[in-house]
Amino acid sequence: MAGILFLISAPSGSGKSTLVDRLRSLEKDLAFSVSYTTRPPRGAEQEAREYHFISREKFEEMIENDEFLEHADVFGNYYGTALHSLTDAFIQGKDLLLDIDVQGASQVRKRMPEGVSIFLMPPSPEDLAYRLRGRSRAEGSVDEAVISRRLAKARQEIENYRQYGYILVNDILDRAVEEMSAIVSAERLNRTPGSRTAEERRLIEIAERCRQRNSEARIKPVLQAFGVLNAETAPV
User: Fold this and answer.
1) Any domain includes 172
2) Tell me, what's the pLDDT at 9?
3) Which of 26, 55, 80, 188 has the smallest CB count inside 10 Å?
4) Is 15 annotated as a binding residue?
């Protein structure tokens, strides 16, 4: 059944882009929204593949014309999702996946509370810092002040995990891909009546384990590592 909106958020450097690319190769009828941004392209990024790169003036004109489903200012650059991404996908009979930050996801949930929200966590601050440094080296330089700022931002974003219906931890990429794919399949199956095959039941079970209410024990070490919860107050 088409018409499902999937939102995925994660701190910068959590491996979200790699996960989304793998998911899109596995799932049919899943459109992907290419966001708009005012930041310049990084490395091998290409127009209309990673982002639509536009000027700040053009972005603000689109805001004025109410052309965005959501938009946010992140580290001094605008990012936004055009409304037409949603309508185009649904007209084509597809579901839509939005790769979106916490601030933008909050805006979308207010407009479309029926959307399926997924939060991807890095396993630890050390792992996230390693990934951020690796990405920075690939782009030509490593600025430790920027790394520290992004780690602090990651902690702030992780504090919002309870706003999401599903939680994934990207400690093993293949497992995270399997879980994300299972969530997409399960949400589609839940909107389709009828008996279930053994494989469909397996996918639904995987997705259920990723629901926020069922994932507290798994994410507890991550929350503690980022200082979001301490050992006394962390859920069990």
Assistant:
1) yes
2) 95
3) 55
4) yes
Asked whether residue 9 is marked as a ligand-binding residue, the answer is: no
Percent of the chain with pLDDT over 90: 77
Longest dimension (CA), the chain: 55
Q: Please spell the DSSP secondary structure of 13-58, one letter per residue.
A: TSSHHHHHHHHHHH-SSEEE---EESSPP-TT--BTTTBEE--HHH
**For residue 25, is pLDDT > 80?**
yes
Helices (H) and strands (E) in the chain, counts: 9, 9
- Predicted confidence at residue 233, as pLDDT, reads 47
Q: Is 16 annotated as a binding residue?
A: yes
Q: Determine if residue 10 is labeled as part of a ligand binding site.
A: yes
| Cβ neighbours for 103, distance < 8 A, ≥ 6 positions apart | 72, 74
217 is in an annotated binding site: no
Q: How far apart are CA 71 and CA 76, in angstroms?
A: 13
CB 120 within 8 A of CB 168: yes
Q: pTM for this structure?
A: 0.88
Question: Does pLDDT of 229 surpass 80?
Answer: no
136 carries a ligand binding annotation? no
Specify the CATH number for the domain of residue 164: 3.40.50.300
Residue 132, domain member (yes or no): yes
235: which residues sit within 8 A by CB, 6+ positions away?
216, 217, 220, 229
pLDDT-based confidence at residue 75 (cuts at 50, 70, 90): confident
Q: Does some domain include residue 175? A: yes
Domain total in the chain: 1
Q: 56 lies in a domain?
A: no
Q: What is the pLDDT of residue 127?
A: 95
Closest listed residue to residue 132, CA positions, set 123, 121, 143? 143
Domain that holds residue 28: 5-32+94-225
